[in-house]
Specification:
Elements lengths: L3 E5 L5 E5 L4 E4 L2 H18 L6
Antiparallel strand pairs: 1-2, 2-3
C-alpha cells in the first residue's frame, strides 16, 4: 500500500512523494496534493487481495 504526501518547498513549488520511492515536483501545493491522491488511489486499486 502506498502512502503519498506532499511538502511545500521554499520557492512556493511543492513535491508529492511516497514511501514506495515515487516523487513528482509541481508548481503549486494544490497540484501536488492532487497528484499524491491520484498516486495513492492508483496504488490501492492495483493491489490484489491476499488469499485466505
Amino acid at each position: 500500500m502506498c502512502y503519498a504526501d506532499t511538502v511545500t518547498n521554499d520557492d512556493g513549488t511543492a513535491t508529492a512523494f511516497c514511501c514506495c520511492g515515487w516523487s513528482a515536483d509541481h508548481a503549486t501545493p494544490d497540484a501536488a496534493d492532487a497528484d499524491a491522491e491520484r498516486h495513492q488511489t492508483a496504488a490501492d486499486a492495483t493491489e490484489s487481495p491476499l488469499a485466505a
